[in-house]
């Protein structure tokens, strides 16, 4: 009986001591890691930018510079990436096995929905930026967006394309540039106006 009590106390003490050591080892591993250094460095940079009230473009450039070394590591992983398909209930790996690969387990259908959502959101953002450039007469930004893959036929919530906005403002350079691209010059907005009608209504020949 005494031996059983002693064994129970010993095992309990061993478990508590093991849990304590593991938690402290985890803390030691995390402390001083690249993740913590990056987080602290980014926090200091953000404080500096807030204190000096830097513009958004400059903020993004500074953050992008700090992320370069980590993005390089991600790109190296992507080069060696390959996909595998597992049937529902199939074991990917068993506990205790030595792992020499990194697995990202995902639901394909959900992943497709997420990707489609992000693509639609990016297209909407590009259309909004392109319409803003056309409205403000920013020819350089408009050309840059189209070269980056933005669709010049995308419309805003009122059905107006960049050509509608440029024609209504009388920006001849932007209007000529858009017409040379495969845009619908007879496209009507929700009010039934075409780019030509917008130009005439606003006194531009």
TrEMBL record:
GO molecular function: voltage-gated potassium channel activity
Gene Ontology terms: cellular component: monoatomic ion channel complex
InterPro entries: Ankyrin_rpt (IPR002110), Ankyrin_rpt-contain_sf (IPR036770), cNMP-bd_dom_sf (IPR018490), KAT/AKT (IPR045319), RmlC-like_jellyroll (IPR014710)
ANK repeats: 158-190
Top-level lineage group: Eukaryota
SMART domains associated with the record: ANK
Keywords noted in UniProt: ANK repeat, Ion channel, Ion transport, Membrane, Potassium, Potassium channel, Potassium transport, Transmembrane, Transmembrane helix, Transport, Voltage-gated channel
Pfam annotation, one family: Ank_2
Coiled-coil annotated spans: none
Record's protein name: Uncharacterized protein
Organism, scientific name: Gossypium barbadense
Native organism taxonomy: Eukaryota, Viridiplantae, Streptophyta, Embryophyta, Tracheophyta
């Amino acid at each position: 009986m005494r031996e059983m009590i002693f064994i129970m106390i010993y095992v309990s003490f061993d478990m508590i001591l093991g849990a304590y050591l593991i938690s402290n080892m985890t803390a030691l591993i995390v402390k001083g890691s690249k993740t913590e250094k990056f987080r602290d460095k980014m926090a200091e940079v953000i404080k500096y930018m807030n204190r000096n009230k830097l513009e958004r473009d400059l903020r993004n450039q500074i953050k992008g510079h700090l992320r370069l070394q980590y993005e390089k590591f991600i790109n190296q992983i992507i080069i060696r990436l390959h996909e595998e398909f597992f049937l529902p209930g199939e074991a990917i790996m068993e506990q205790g096995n030595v792992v020499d690969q990194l697995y990202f387990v995902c639901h394909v259908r959900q992943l497709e929905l997420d990707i489609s959502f992000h693509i639609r959101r990016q297209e909407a953002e590009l259309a909004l930026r392109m319409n803003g450039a056309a409205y403000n007469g920013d020819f350089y930004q408009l050309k840059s967006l189209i070269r980056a893959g933005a669709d010049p036929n995308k419309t805003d919530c009122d059905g107006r394309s960049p050509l509608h906005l440029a024609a209504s403002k009388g920006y001849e350079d932007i209007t000529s540039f858009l017409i040379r691209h495969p845009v619908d010059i007879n496209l009507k907005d929700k009010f039934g106006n075409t780019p030509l009608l917008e130009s005439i209504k606003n006194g531009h020949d």
